Amino acid sequence: QVQLVESGGGLVQPGGSLRLSCAASGSIFRVYTMGWYRQAPGKQRELVATITSGGNTNYADSVNGRFTISRDNTKNTMYLQMNSLKPEDTAVYYCKARVSTVVGGRGYEYWGQGTQVTVSS
Q1: Mean pLDDT, residues 43-52 taken together
Q2: CA nearest 85: which of 8, 15, 21, 11?
Q3: Which residues contact 104 (CB under 8 A, 6 or more apart)?
Q4: How many of the other CB atoms lie within 10 Å of CB of 18?
Q5: 11 and 98 Cβ atoms separated by less than 8 Å
Q6: Helix ranges restricted to H, 1-121
Q7: What value does the mean pLDDT take over residues 50-56?
Q8: Would you say residue 82 has pLDDT above 90?
Q9: How far apart are CA 95 and CA 110, in angstroms?
Q10: Contact 119, 87 (CB under 8 A)
Q11: Which residues, at least 6 apart from 61, have a Cβ–Cβ distance to it below 8 Å?
Q12: Nearest CA to 121 among 86, 80, 82, 83?
């Protein structure tokens, strides 16, 4: 089966930076679009950024200009570089990816377990 594992979360002061990683492993044929989502206490889960297998990206307005999404297709790994962090960025960050396990398969959406990011003085 396919697993997505996030890492890199932690506590950081406002204005600081963190880099999150999401590694896909298991019976993988191809990884298609990947994305980062986040959920703060009392709020619904929201899209942060996505990146296609070809490298096309899009960002939520709240993070555009501060966050950068990237991927290394040779490692089936996605990254989120977060700069100029604000307290409002505090949330559990989740990795999502569409992954096919067989030739000709359209893929299935997988989620990671999440990693906590806390921005506080």
Answers
A1: 98
A2: 15
A3: none
A4: 21
A5: no
A6: none
A7: 96
A8: yes
A9: 8
A10: yes
A11: none
A12: 86
Residue 95: burial class (beta carbons within 10 Å; 0-12, 13-18, 19+): buried
> Residue 96's beta-bridge partner residues?
35, 111
Structure tokens at 80: 């989120």
What number of other Cβ atoms are within 10 A of residue 98's Cβ? 17
Confidence bin at 97 (pLDDT 50/70/90): very high
Task: Residue 115: count other Cβ atoms within 10 Å of its Cβ.
Answer: 21
pLDDT of 105: 86
Backbone angles phi, psi at 29, to 5 degrees: -95, -50
pLDDT of residue 13: 98
Residues composing the chain: 121
**Closest Cα partner for 71 from 97, 48, 45?**
97
